[in-house]
Amino acid sequence: MLLTICKGKIHRATVTEARLEYVGSITIDRDLMDAAQIRPYEMVQVTNVANATLWRTYAISAPRGSGTICLNGPPARLFQPSDLVIILSLAQITADEYEKVTANVVHVDEKNQITRIESHHLLELLEESH
What we know:
The structure is a single chain. The longest helix has 7 residues, at 122-128. It contains 3 helices and 9 strands; from the N terminus they run E-E-E-H-E-E-E-E-H-E-E-H. A hairpin with a 5-residue loop joins strand 8 (102-108) and strand 9. The chain has a single domain, classed as Barwin-like endoglucanases, CATH 2.40.40. It is mainly beta. The protein has helices at 30-35, 95-98, 122-128, and strands at 2-14, 17-19, 25-29, 43-48, 54-62, 69-72, 84-94, 102-108, 114-121. A 9-stranded mixed β-sheet has the order 2-6-3-5-4-7-1-8-9. Helices cover 13% and strands 51% of the residues.
């Protein structure tokens, strides 16, 4: 059996651009990607805090420290600059792998610079809940 988990999250980032004419994807500051354990071309889920729109697309990297969060292609109609978003990196893992996974929650300021990273060891969370 596979479990679908959140292995990384960028919490309440600010959309900096929306480019309708681009082919697709979300462009994310590479520092944020690394902190949230998101790899280039990995599928991510993006939720708009303002209107509850949920979109799945792949991530491409922007320059480190740029603060870029840009929705490209069709989601540019649903996500606009200054919107707050939550970006989730999901993984399918086995029950045995669950014991080894650490999920990172990346908190950012209004310029999408990292303010703190919470690391959650899933096994510890499982043991706490019992």
